[in-house]
Amino acid sequence: MGDSLSQEIYTFDWSSSRVNINGHPHFKVNYYPGTTNSNYKGDFYPDLESNPTIKKYTFSSSYTLTASTDYRTAGIFTTPLNTVDNPFGSITDYNSVLIVPYGVTVTFSGKPDLIPTLLIKGRVVLNPSVGNTGYWVGKTIIFPTGVLESIPTTSSNHTLNLQGWGSTSIAWDPLKTSSFISLGGTVTLIGLNSESMWAGRNSSYSSYGGSFLRTPFTYSTTGSPIFRMGSLGRDAYYSTIYAFNNYYTKYKTSAGSDSFISDNETFNGAGYVLVSPWKKNVWITGGTYSSMVFTLNSTINIQNSVFFDIGHTKGDVLDDNTIDSTYTVTHAGTNLPDRYPITLLHNKNAVTISNNFFQHGFAFGSTVASIPRSFIGAKRSFGTISGNAFALNSNICGISLLHGTEQFEVSYNAFLSLYSDTTTISSYRAYPDIDYLNGGIITTSPYSTYEGNAFEGNFKGGAFQVIPIQSRSSATGLSSDILIGTYTGLTQDNTADYITNNVWNNVEYKNNFFAGEAEFRFRYSLTSQPTIKVNMKYGWYIGQKVSQRLGTTGNQANIELYYDSPYIASTLSKNDEYYVITSSSHNGKYTAVSIANSIAISTYAYFAESFTSNYLSIKDSKFSHFASSPSTFLKNYATQLYLSNVNGTKLNDEWGKTEFRPLFNLSPINTAISSNKINVSFIPNFNFSFSDGQIVDYIVDGNVQSTLNFNYDPNKSLKYNEVVFPKSNGVYSVLISSIQNYLSPSITSPFGPYFANSYIIDSTAINFYLGIDLTSDISSPATALSIFGNSWTKCGWVSTICKTTGKFSKVSPTPSTVTESVTGAVRSIADEVSMLTSYLANDVTLGIKSSVNITLPSGSSFKFFIYSYNADYTGANIVNSLPLFTIKINGKYQEPYSRPSSTYQQYKKYGPFFYNTDSTDTKLIIEWASDNIKYSIPICGIEIFSNSSSPLNIPTPTPSSGGAVETSSKSTTTSGSTETNFDESLSVASSILSSKTLFNLIFFISLFFSLIV
């Protein structure tokens, strides 16, 4: 065999010299070519054919093995069996190896005796039509021409027992390699029954979430067992007490058979996920040291099967073998890595693992030998892991993507979990020994997709654990990674964390289901690295709680957790009581949380009282929330709050159970208006106790503008009230908050319906006022620039009103045209091209944020737009993602919190943004990309409109020398300290500008309109 398997994700040549480990020959595979990790000497697999201590027996022709096979029979092997080593007609000698050569088929029929070691270069088949056929082999090694196949055509079981050696020491296997190794072979294990391994509850009550996820499997017999989470009832805090129920058989009889338990029965909030593994007829099991490894270019297709009691890499700290420079084992590891039930190592062919069931023992909870840290562990491999179900306990996880470049479709898998170890986790282990704290999915890879997965029960480390690997170059010893799968031909740059972290912004977590102590946990510390946007699209969050064993501070993560169209509720059961879930979905601290199009109408504590964030945005949502301090309500969880078209209820169960109590027939919902006055109409909600005499506050930008009282109205007619905004220009928040009035005049509860909206008034600042080109090229005399049909100037030409900090740069050579990234408009006028390709940005080297400061007239209204050009180009073979950034105005984030930069080598227009000056000069500070100091995100120009009928008379002073291109905005003082070039003491302007307001622009990407509830 030649060098056909060599590729950049590993190097290996069948013809290369073997490496003798403890004197026994091994194949050496270099999984990390070019690594700087001096401790990595390669991965090794026994070469038994070239080992002189091994007795080899090669099948002479195709043969069928049965329980009565006598290996002493003449003609079975090319070399007769040594009956001294194997005196009973079976293979009992550990040093005796059977070989299936290329062109030969060996069929297992019935239950042949144990074979200690089998090398497969030909074809091994489990008889598809003979029931209860077994494959019982201590160690299997499959070569590139080798095939192992189990595809039963009847309902009788095939069982593959991958025995392993247990604690027995085998001299020729000093590294205790896996009991099943595919070195580029083909493995096909497909059970006959292809019904879905699991199904979501088949509820018809759409108002409570309705059906979710998988089509239900057939369930027509009352005695058919179902594996699911059962409930032992509720604890003192009304949280579900989970238990595993292996044989749950109750079903809805009122609608006939073929139906699951439905929402018209109370089931204590458990059993949303139903699993049916018992019809599957391919079973894979093993022992203490049994596991499966697939590597090189193996072809893997495993479907409709059951895995149990297999895998021996535990959740404890890894303890690997140690080999010295002479390839002698100096330490035999006690917890070897990469020994999972299914281990995928640098496999260059697509993998299919579909519709299987995984548990660590046949009867869950029984004493078994194997408790692996994960059922599927993958490194630098790709394919599909879909439709599987996992029963988890102890420190077991379901799926682990471990290197950070895996490319899998991880979809429609179900995870049921309990844990018994209640020890609080106070610290974490780092790559490559990533923690296994009991969870459904652990991933370090932003190149995989995650859709339709369901998590129910209690997950100690979090149901879904995302761990971006930091300091990748030093951690992995690789300056770059070659990608495979759909990213074949592309490279990941490992030299800068901000680049690899930024790729995570592309990932969507779509249509996933979480119930119970099933936290989505993103481990990414609050550092100077760019904030990662976590895109949670659709999905169900049912009685979801944070992990109770990860410390009191909760998850501290530098992320924007973004939910689009989530369904959030205490339960999906129609008759289950509306209990408050006191252990919340989120605690700790995130950089930001954004929620859009949510349905959250249950009595629910979504945020823990201790939760904090810099920014919380809720838009176009129904959002009820339990809070012990409803006077502060949602603003209690964020430094800044933005609400738009939110209808909900402030909840507290102190006075009894509560429910969703919205205001009705709200108008206007439209956020764009043309006047500073609107009539907000609605119908009060009288459908709850003590609702007569409701007090309703109208709050504009955090200030109570008016308070009304509504008595019970049997006709439920519309109520009107006028809201007046301070200006006819800008973005303003309006909150209509109903205060529930109790019978006792001394008791007033702040709980009840509310409606919040943000209105944009854009009617006065319509005339062009000023355009500023942000460039350091001001050596030529000042003149009017022809840009977008108006006369612009350069910041340096009007230095008395325009100041900057940051670093100037420009594109070289200047292109002849520039394209707008949204509309595709092409700009070719010289002044326009020059403005768009010369820019100000963060000084990444010195850590200085870009800022622009402009003086504008007092007592006026302004609207402005910002132009940005993406000057970066990473090359066609480099994987990258457009950086996200925020925009702050006067220290306030702008909505949306984060937004992407323009397409590479194109420009984009951002805005409008609004500003109203007071009667005296004020300083407005707008920060541009300041929260993403790792990136140099350009700001090229500012276009300002005003209510003034005339544009600013652009002064033309004698030009100064200006700042040099590619220089920092910091200057060194005589004392050697550094200071920013930001004029904090402007007191006198030119006669033209004496009444102007200082308009101070410092830019950072993200948009926020403040609303105080």
Notable characteristics:
1013 residues, mainly beta, globular, disordered C terminus
Describe this entry's structure for a reader.
The protein has 1013 residues and is mainly β. The strands form twelve sheets. The chain has a 46-stranded mixed sheet that branches. A six-stranded mixed sheet has the order 62-63-61-77-70-75, with helices on one face. The termini are far apart.
Protein topology:
Layout lengths: L18 E3 L2 E6 L13 E4 L8 E4 L4 E3 L30 E5 L4 E4 L6 E6 L2 E4 L6 E10 L4 E4 L7 E5 L17 E4 L2 E5 L7 E3 L26 E8 L5 E6 L27 E3 L6 E4 L6 E4 L3 E5 L2 E3 L13 E2 L5 E3 L10 E4 L5 E4 L2 E3 L14 E6 L2 E5 L2 E4 L4 E5 L5 E5 L2 E4 L21 E5 L5 E3 L2 E5 L5 E3 L5 H5 L3 E3 L8 E3 L3 H7 L4 E3 L2 E5 L2 E3 L9 E6 L2 E3 L13 E9 L2 E3 L19 E8 L2 E2 L11 E12 L1 E2 L13 E12 L12 E4 L4 E2 L3 E7 L10 E7 L2 E8 L8 E6 L4 E13 L6 E2 L2 E11 L4 E7 L11 E3 L2 E5 L7 E4 L1 E4 L7 E2 L6 E2 L2 H8 E4 L9 E7 L3 E9 L14 E2 L1 E3 L2 E2 L5 E2 L6 E10 L7 E5 L12 E6 ...
Parallel strand pairs: 4-6, 5-7, 6-8, 7-9, 8-10, 9-11, 10-12, 10-13, 11-14, 12-19, 13-20, 14-21, 19-22, 20-25, 21-26, 22-27, 25-28, 26-29, 27-30, 28-31, 29-32, 30-33, 31-34, 32-35, 33-36, 34-37, 35-40, 36-41, 37-42, 40-43, 41-44, 43-45, 44-46, 45-47, 46-48, 47-49, 48-49, 49-51, 50-51, 53-60, ...
Antiparallel strand pairs: 1-2, 2-3, 15-18, 16-17, 16-18, 23-24, 38-39, 51-60, 52-54, 54-57, 55-56, 55-58, 58-59, 58-60, 61-77, 62-63, 64-69, 65-68, 66-67, 69-80, 70-75, 70-77, 71-74, 72-73, 72-76, 78-79
